[in-house]
Specification:
Layout (H helix, E strand, L loop, with lengths): L1 E5 L3 E7 L1 H8 L1 H4 L7 H7 L10 H29 L4 E3 L2 E7 L3 H19 L3 H4 L10 H23 L1
Antiparallel strand pairs: 1-2, 2-4, 3-4
Helix pairs in contact: 3-5, 4-5, 5-7
Length: about 160
Amino acid sequence: MEFFTTGKSRVGFRQIHPLLAELVRGLPVLVDPDALSETVEQRFYPEPTRERDHDQLRSDWKAFVEPGLQEHFRSSRDIVIADLKNLIEKKDAFEITIPLQHADAWLNVLNQARLALAADLGFDEELLSSTEPPDLVSNRGLIAFRINLYAFMQQCLIEQME
């Protein structure tokens, strides 16, 4: 899979192996707000404090901050869903072109997907930052590969935005 730019307003990925295309196509499912596990919800919407005497702060957070985050996550997901309609097959590989103005939404969804996968399997920072290739025979290894794929995509987008 390689990253490319088209002019100043579009970016994309091409030569995407069919397996990787399926992993990219599965992004919206990973961050579906109606299907998040409790662990993932806690990761996406952590309490601002665990101090006992800050009940009002937690209440205000739930009432005023969380709804904005949820809306931001939903709108980013909607943009990615629409962009995924541009994931097309070319010979034995796939390609997707994304408007550069959608890069923030993609970064958001890719990050959420990585957090969701890591939270559901209890991955820690040491495992996520490992330089060893993942063991693709195990489910944990496949998930680590998926997390790394999404990190690669994030890195490409960030470097283009700089």
